[in-house]
Amino acid sequence: MGAYHYQPVVYHPHNQKPSCKNPGYFVSKPTCAWLACGFLSLALLHLLCCDPTATRQAAFSPLRQYINNTYSFVSTVPGGGKSCNYSEGSWVWAPGHGRRYNATECNVKESHDCIRNGRHDTGYLDWRWQPAGNCPLLAFDATLFLTVVRGKHVAFIGDSMARNQAQSLICLLTAGATFPYRLLYRGTGAYPDKYNYWRYAFPSHDVTVSFYWTPFLVRAEGKSVDDGLLHNYVHLDEPHDRWAADADTIDVAVLTAGHWFLNGAVYYNGSEVIGVHNAPPEFTNHTIIGYAWPLRVAYRSAMEWLLSSGRPQPRTLVLATFSPSHFEGEPAENPTSWVCRKTEPYTEGEKEMAWVVKDTRGIVHDEAEAAKARYDGNGGGGAVRIEVLDVTKLAAMRPDGHPGVYMNRDPFAHDGVQVEKLVSDCLHFCLPGPVDTFNEILVQLLKRGR
Ligand SMILES: *[C@@H]1O[C@H](CO)[C@@H](O)[C@H](O)[C@H]1NC(C)=O
Ligand SMILES: *[C@@H]1O[C@H](CO)[C@@H](O)[C@H](O)[C@H]1NC(C)=O
Ligand SMILES: *[C@@H]1O[C@H](CO)[C@@H](O)[C@H](O)[C@H]1NC(C)=O
Ligand SMILES: *[C@@H]1O[C@H](CO)[C@@H](O)[C@H](O)[C@H]1NC(C)=O
Ligand SMILES: *[C@@H]1O[C@H](CO)[C@@H](O)[C@H](O)[C@H]1NC(C)=O
């Protein structure tokens, strides 16, 4: 076991063949052993590669009635002032609060469209994040968001949690079609993936919102580019070329990374290997550097490239903190429990936050503080604002908000389904779901800086 136990995104029992062609999807025992067990598997995130196994049309869904077709979630509660600290708080019962949009209508990844996929318990949509100190967090307001970022290009750069949040934002902004919008592209040129490279325009406010899949923030080769490969080779001294090419168009960047650093990689500076974490066998004679230092360097490098790209000021960089997964149990001991089956948030104190989760959260805060000191007011000649979007606590409290086995359509539709053989996504959130709250907080952070 490694010093930091971390849990994979998808669990296949050891005796089962992978259900799709992707070899990285299935973590064999030998692989697991030399990986110091348990880490690699996380890289599977885009396991989401796999098409849903069941393709038949869903029968009439009784859940339909729960979606509030008025889509009117503009709150009239005043407040949300400068002093609000959104990172601590609790989830309070608020029936209907999370039922905001129909994810099928906003191009989300099918594996996050839990309602379409047949998830029947929808209580996970009935909670509202109440920040500590009684300050209110207003429900998402598309008008407010577009007004706050009027004339700007908002870019989400990062891993699949960045994508989860970016897709949530598009759903929140397009629900009810209050404002005209246009999909500018889904996949381009050398980057054809329709979920990982896209941009929307909201012409009424001259706003664009884009997503750049780049799980290490910097340039990487290997598994993150080709899921058929087992390992990652990461160039800490080079930006990912797809977002770097657009860096001088980005006004507001939301950076999200962490999970892939925990999995491990071979890290390069130029052509030199500077260290490894959970390395493939041929690299194990190199210095073991863990995940923390590369993660810090990647954040610093990404911020530096964004701010030195020549875009006129002001610019805003938002660093999102770690959103942990909720795989329960140890596969060897209890295969059937390794699925996120909870239907309610944790209560305060019910579950201690894992050390590694606190550590990655702290790294983001540290790097944001250091960047504030570095760029304060003069990141190359104008106003630069650095904010932390601390979602760790609120996300950690929501084991109930993941697709679980509903990452596939109608997982129980076939006779004789063996529950323990189903695969689960206990990392990303259902859409709609708790990740919508990330965007409620994002609006407030952007608003108070104006
Ligand atoms: C969501 O939208 C799709 C496509 O318009 C529709 O087929 C489906 O019934 C809707 N789902 C709900 C729960 O309203
Ligand atoms: C928010 O609350 C947390 C936990 O109490 C604290 O560590 C953090 O410093 C606070 N942040 C701000 C900006 O006050
Ligand atoms: C739907 O939205 C309307 C308008 O805000 C509200 O009056 C109604 O209570 C909502 N229904 C549910 C089920 O949330
Ligand atoms: C990479 O090497 C250059 C030149 O030797 C050095 O200045 C830089 O600090 C190194 N970067 C990292 C991340 O080690
Ligand atoms: C590590 O082993 C590989 C393969 O045997 C070798 O090519 C490389 O030079 C070694 N690196 C170090 C730092 O010893």
TrEMBL record:
InterPro entries attached to this UniProt entry: TBL, TBL_C, TBL_N
Residue ranges of every copy of the Trichome birefringence-like C-terminal domain listed in the record: 139-444
Keyword match Protein transport: no
Domain Trichome birefringence-like N-terminal: 82-133
Gene Ontology molecular function: any one: xylan O-acetyltransferase activity
Principal place of residence: Golgi
The UniProt record lists the keyword Transmembrane helix: yes
Its membrane topology: Single-pass type II membrane protein
Assigned keywords, A-Z: Disulfide bond, Glycoprotein, Golgi apparatus, Membrane, Signal-anchor, Transferase, Transmembrane, Transmembrane helix
Stated name of the protein: Uncharacterized protein
